[in-house]
Amino acid sequence: MTQELTRQEIQNLLAMLPHALVRDECMTCECMQGFLTQLETDTGEDITNLVAPFKAQPDEMNPCLGCDPCPPAELYADYLRGKNLENL
Is the overall model pTM greater than 0.90, yes or no? Predict the structure, then answer.
């Protein structure tokens, strides 16, 4: 991704997250935790305070639950599709 996410874009994605998750276990799924790490990677800003409420401790994490579609992955893919459409 060539353009970094802004703090506002990350806040928007995180605001949608609770509505996208279908199971309580999603919060501690490695896919969800990977999504949060990807958001941190895709911005040049410190967003620790934004992602901290969603972060699981390593001993709390679950492996991928096999959801199809994967809620955090789907949310991020939708974001990327929208971003790509804006750039056309």
Answer: no
